[in-house]
């Protein structure tokens, strides 16, 4: 197979042109220029003066762009050879039930996988996909199909993907990685205030007297946002951090509380108990703009600091100090991340933060508000565009007959009114034989979803799988058809960042070989299945999306220009709303929703005595598909390390850099140890990006009952030292197989 080899000589600098576009990684949505030479090769990235970054970039934005020109880029459609059935993983890595002997290398071995596919024309590949998906729809019904879209795609791509799944295939089984990220936060926000988006932008922290930074690590995961937090701290904002693992921003905090895993509800309930008991709550705001205060007051009454101290590990005096500083502040912002949301009680955790903001009257003014820091560059926009199973674009319920009628009229089809399955539910349904066909555009669930052994079984059990991506991912190893797609820097489209700012990404290079624009692929598949989508270009798709999604009213490509605008945007000449809900909430009065402390499903015992926390690190991104193919980023951080507290390490006989085995009730991985006091005794931290130490071999598939988000933060494990150097063989008595 031909691969795209970008072996171009560097161009003279005066031949390089600057193209204004965006960073493709996190939800901060930094504006940048790519310097592109005459051969279409990106020579550099430099920050431009965007509303969210003021010219700043982190290491990923500055150096992480060369993945688009990686030699492994797919350039032609691929079809699985007959000899590669029955369907299953094609590489030694993906077949293993554990890390087993560690195989170095962070990306799919094409020599191992490619022989199982043959190149095909687009005509043949699209015909095969249309027949595969259409055949299942006609034989087993639309709900035997599902689609995973991508938060890395544009709003236009997200809109068309959900339209394809709903209007062409006829099911609401469409979701994306928001389900692994902030689905619980969004559930709590819509329930509590009637809107899932942030109320205030990150840079509003410069107006805040206090900022609570809960369960997030912005210096690693939202680095440019973190620079504004540090700047605010230097100018006098008191930062209060709460986290199981010490975040870098703690260096700038007035107070850092290292709570026990899963203790957030106890901590925030105790803070609210103190605030109410000491009369620091905002009675005027509560009376005028909220409902349910009495129920909240009753629920938190028994979470006194003395009761909360053993539950949270935070001394009562520190809980009181936290509550007083927050309660006395004239303005306070609330930022949170995966440490809050990625739990089976993630919705309850978010409910507490929302209640705390309402209790102290901190919504609707500059320097206040709720800000769940969005992960992917377009996870906000993808959700806004309806890439979720229960809502059409603009968070309009699929179960509302009036909404259904409107979309039926617009799209000219009959639509299903039953909310669809979420990401992890789709995996479970595939195992049960209820989902038979899957369209996966730009996601890699084999590595990103919990309990990899179950995901492997689920992917292998499908009747038909089509994967549309830049590379052969671990998920694509299971595919019947692989469609070569376009990278961020090869497409035009809008992206909505964590601040609700809608900005245009612009192409700076051509897709390699025969790789195509993702929306063209969707359009051509729809055509084959009897739906004629006559969009002239991306802006026509955006206009239709705006027509369906009221929050995006007044936005057009022309008005977005180079700088973008915030939504909602009340008029054609408005910059958009920086602060929401000054007067009224979308549901009228906001609701206090009390929460009780929950119990995680996978708790330590004698066999698995430690708690594993999983998450991200600065230099990498999600399943590493992009960053591990970026030369600079991979060179800076080539390997996973499990973080171990020095006291635990001493007890277990583990030294810095020593190979270890982490085993959970579902599998095990081998990884080198890094000794640090950032993690508490009894806990470990493993980044999620490294397939050779795949965190999701270990994690549990249990879900939050509301947001349907998996438990990625509490997983009972044991840690065992391996003989140095790595023997590739676990010690006697340690099983590789999932128990
Ligand atoms: S902070 Fe996020 S958007 Fe900005 S450069 Fe870094 S990864 Fe890109």
Automatic annotation (TrEMBL):
Reaction equations catalysed: 2 Fe(II)-[cytochrome] + nitrate + 2 H(+) = 2 Fe(III)-[cytochrome] + nitrite + H2O
Biological process GO terms, please?
Answer: formate metabolic process; nitrate assimilation; respiratory electron transport chain
Assigned EC number: 1.9.6.1
Which cofactor(s) are needed, names only? [4Fe-4S] cluster; Mo-bis(molybdopterin guanine dinucleotide)
InterPro entries, alphabetically?
Asp_de-COase-like_dom_sf (IPR009010), CT_Formate-Dh_H (IPR041925), Formate_Dh-H_N (IPR041924), Formate_DH_asu (IPR006478), MoPterin_dinucl-bd_dom (IPR006657), Mopterin_OxRdtase (IPR006656), Mopterin_OxRdtase_4Fe-4S_dom (IPR006963), Mopterin_OxRdtase_prok_CS (IPR006655)
Annotated GO CC locations: membrane; oxidoreductase complex
Q: What class of enzyme is it?
A: oxidoreductase
Which Gene3D superfamilies does the protein's record reference? Answer: 2.40.40.20, 3.40.50.740, ADC-like domains, Dimethylsulfoxide Reductase, domain 2
**What are this entry's molecular-function GO terms?**
4 iron, 4 sulfur cluster binding; formate dehydrogenase (NAD+) activity; metal ion binding; molybdopterin cofactor binding; NADH dehydrogenase activity; nitrate reductase (cytochrome) activity
> Region Disordered: which residues?
79-105
Q: Which UniProt keywords apply?
A: 4Fe-4S, Electron transport, Iron, Iron-sulfur, Metal-binding, Molybdenum, Nitrate assimilation, Oxidoreductase, Periplasm, Signal, Transport
Query: Domain 4Fe-4S Mo/W bis-MGD-type spans what residues?
Result: 16-72
One Pfam family in the UniProt entry: Molybdopterin
Role summary = Catalytic subunit of the periplasmic nitrate reductase complex NapAB. Receives electrons from NapB and catalyzes the reduction of nitrate to nitrite.
Q: What is this protein called?
A: nitrate reductase (cytochrome)
Lineage, highest ranks first = Bacteria, Pseudomonadati, Pseudomonadota, Gammaproteobacteria, Chromatiales
């Amino acid at each position: 197979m031909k691969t795209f080899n970008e072996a171009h000589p560097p161009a003279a600098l005066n031949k390089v042109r600057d193209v204004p576009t965006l960073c493709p990684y996190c939800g901060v949505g930094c504006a940048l220029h790519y310097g592109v030479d005459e051969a279409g090769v990106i020579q550099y990235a430099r920050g431009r003066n965007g509303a969210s970054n003021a010219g700043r970039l982190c290491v990923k934005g500055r150096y992480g762009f060369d993945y688009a020109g990686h030699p492994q880029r797919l350039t032609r459609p691929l079809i699985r050879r007959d000899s590669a059935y029955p369907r299953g993983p094609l590489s030694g890595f993906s077949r293993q039930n554990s890390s087993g002997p560690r195989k170095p290398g962070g990306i799919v071995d094409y020599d191992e996988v490619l022989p199982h596919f043959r190149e095909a024309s687009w005509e043949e590949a699209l015909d095969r996909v249309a027949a595969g998906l259409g055949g299942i729809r006609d034989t087993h019904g639309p709900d035997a199909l599902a689609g995973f879209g991508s938060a890395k795609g544009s709003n236009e791509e997200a809109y068309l993907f959900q339209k394809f799944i709903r209007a062409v295939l006829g099911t609401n089984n469409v979701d994306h990685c928001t389900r692994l990220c902030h689905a619980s936060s969004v559930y709590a926000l819509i329930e509590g205030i009637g809107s899932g988006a942030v109320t205030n932008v990150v840079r509003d922290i410069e107006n805040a007297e206090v900022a609570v930074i809960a369960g997030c690590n912005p210096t690693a995961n939202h680095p440019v946002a973190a620079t504004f937090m540090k700047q605010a701290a230097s100018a006098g904002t008191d930062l209060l951090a709460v986290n199981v693992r010490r975040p870098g921003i703690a260096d700038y905090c007035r107070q850092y509380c290292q709570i026990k895993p899963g203790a957030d509800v106890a901590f925030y309930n105790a803070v609210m108990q103190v605030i109410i008991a000491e009369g620091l709550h905002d009675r005027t705001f509560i009376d005028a703009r909220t409902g349910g205060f009495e129920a909240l007051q009753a629920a938190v009454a028994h979470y006194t600091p003395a009761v909360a101290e053993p539950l949270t590990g935070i001394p009562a005096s520190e809980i009181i100090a936290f509550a007083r500083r927050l309660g006395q502040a004239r303005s306070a912002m609330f930022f949170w991340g995966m440490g809050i949301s990625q739990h089976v009680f993630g919705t309850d955790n978010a409910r507490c933060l929302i209640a705390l903001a309402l209790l102290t009257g901190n919504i609707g003014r500059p320097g206040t508000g709720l800000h769940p820091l969005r992960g992917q560059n377009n996870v906000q926009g993808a959700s806004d565009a309806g890439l979720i199973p229960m809502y059409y674009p603009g968070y309009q319920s699929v179960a509302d007959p009036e909404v259904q009628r409107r979309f039926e009229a617009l799209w000219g089809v009959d639509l299903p009114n039953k909310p669809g399955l979420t990401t992890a539910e789709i995996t479970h349904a595939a195992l049960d034989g209820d989902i038979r066909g899957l369209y996966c555009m730009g996601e890699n669930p084999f590595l990103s979803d919990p309990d990899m052994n179950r995901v492997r079984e689920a992917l292998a059990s499908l009747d038909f799988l089509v994967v549309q991506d830049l590379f052969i991912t671990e998920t694509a190893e299971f595919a019947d058809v692989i469609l070569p797609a376009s990278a961020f820097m090869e497409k035009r489209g809008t992206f909505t960042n964590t601040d609700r700012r809608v900005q245009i990404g612009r192409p700076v290079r051509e897709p390699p070989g025969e790789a195509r624009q993702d929306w063209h692929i969707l359009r051509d598949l729809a055509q084959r299945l009897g739906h004629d989508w006559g969009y002239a270009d991306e802006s026509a798709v955006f206009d239709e999306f705006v027509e369906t999604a009221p929050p995006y009213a007044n936005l057009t490509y022309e008005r977005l220009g180079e700088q973008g605008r915030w939504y909602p945007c009340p008029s054609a000449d408005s910059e958009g709303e920086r602060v929401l809900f000054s007067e009224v909430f979308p549901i009228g009065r906001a609701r206090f929703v009390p929460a009780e402390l929950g119990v995680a499903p996978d708790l330590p015992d004698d066999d698995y005595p430690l708690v594993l926390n999983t998450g991200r690190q600065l230099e990498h991104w999600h399943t590493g598909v992009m960053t591990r193919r970026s030369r600079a980023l991979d060179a800076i951080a080539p390997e996973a390390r499990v973080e171990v507290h020095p006291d635990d390490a001493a007890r277990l006989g583990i030294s810095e850099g020593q190979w270890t085995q982490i085993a959970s009730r579902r599998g095990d991985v081998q990884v080198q140890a890094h000794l640090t006091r950032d993690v508490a005794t009894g806990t470990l931290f493993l980044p999620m990006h490294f397939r050779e130490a795949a965190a999701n071999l270990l994690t549990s598939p249990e879900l939050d009952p509301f947001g349907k988000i998996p438990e990625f933060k509490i997983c009972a494990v044991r840690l065992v030292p391996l003989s140095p150097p790595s023997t590739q063989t676990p010690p006697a008595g340690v099983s590789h197989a999932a128990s």
